[in-house]
Design goal:
Helix content is 46%, strand content 15%. It has helices at 3-7, 24-35, 64-78, 101-128, 150-170, 188-195, 200-210, 219-230, 248-251, and strands at residues 15-19, 39-44, 55-58, 83-86, 132-137, 175-182, 241-244. The chain binds nicotinamide-adenine-dinucleotide (NAD). Nicotinamide-adenine-dinucleotide binds next to helix 2 and helix 6.
């Protein structure tokens, strides 16, 4: 039992779906919400590494049937859904010419339409919750021009616009929708990119040096922002973004 659990919190007893919750930022969000007393359902296409303290539901956010089945299974198991954290996402490198149409469609289907699939499946449950909240993982790429990230940036820019549109649509239903914009975070995804470099240690040092605060963002820092945005403490906050990027967005 953690200190926060012992003290009780305003999210105690709520049920959350965390997509991409088996790795990286999503796993940190799952842990943080669990510490805050939330019952966490991890929804991931690969649940083999999901923490066994959480119920894991295998689903691909780019496949409507698998999303509908997983969200129905969460509702059946826990009887409610109060929070949806749309965090599953994949990367893409290069300029606009670097990826073919199939890859554009695949990345947008996961990073953007995936949010619509998961959240619309959960909507009937969110409408019944006294404390409904959605948080999307966007990116620094949604607000700043990152070189060699054209498709990824397009997808995350769409996540930002979608966050505002969802916030407007569901305002009167009491469903709040916000997002976080992480900078480069220390996750298995970034680890894989570094490992593909000729000298991973040197590449990591260079990447850290490019961050305004001289280090990568910790997934726990992103999780803390998400935990705030989905909690009743943020009850008057919707359609907003928290930058968790060491100040990178201010410098560009
Ligand atoms: P990660 O690769 O470590 O974890 C992503 C998780 O999402 C994995 O468990 C993966 O299985 C799951 N996933 C991927 N595609 C899926 C699909 N179609 N259906 C269901 N699950 C799927 O990545 P991460 O670094 O933790 O990134 C998480 C989110 O944060 C992504 O949306 C990413 O764009 C965003 N983000 C990451 C960084 C960073 O530097 N790591 C920065 C800004 C934003």
């Amino acid at each position: 039992v953690t200190l926060r659990q012992a003290q009780g919190s305003d999210t105690d007893g709520l049920v959350a779906i965390v997509t991409g919750g088996a790795s990286g930022i999503g796993a940190a969000i799952a842990h943080r919400l669990h510490d805050d007393g939330v019952t966490v359902a991890v929804l991931d296409r690969d649940t083999s590494n999901a923490d066994e303290r959480f119920a894991a539901f295998t689903a691909d956010v780019s496949d409507r049937a698998s999303v509908d089945a997983a969200v129905a299974a969460v509702a059946e198991r826990f009887g409610r859904i109060d929070i949806v954290v749309n965090n599953a996402g994949i990367g893409a490198q290069g300029d606009i010419a670097a990826n073919d149409d199939d890859e554009w469609a695949r990345v947008l289907s996961i990073n953007v339409t995936g949010i619509a699939r998961v959240t619309s499946a959960a909507l009937p449950w969110l409408r019944k919750s006294p404390s409904a909240a959605v948080c999307n993982t966007a990116s620094i790429a949604s607000t700043t021009g990152l070189p060699q990230r054209a498709l990824y940036s397009a997808s995350k820019g769409a996540v930002a616009a979608l966050t505002r549109a969802m916030a407007a649509d569901h305002l009167r239903e009491g469903i709040r929708v916000n997002a976080v914009n992480p900078g480069t975070a220390d996750t298995p995804w970034v680890g894989r990119l570094l490992d593909s470099a000729a000298d991973p240690a040197a590449e990591r040092a260079a990447l850290e040096a490019r961050q305004p605060h001289g280090r990568l963002v910790s997934p726990d820092e992103v999780a803390a922002a998400v935990a705030y945005l989905v909690s009743p403490s943020a009850g008057s906050t919707t359609g907003t973004f928290i930058e968790v990027d060491g100040g990178m967005a201010q410098l560009r």
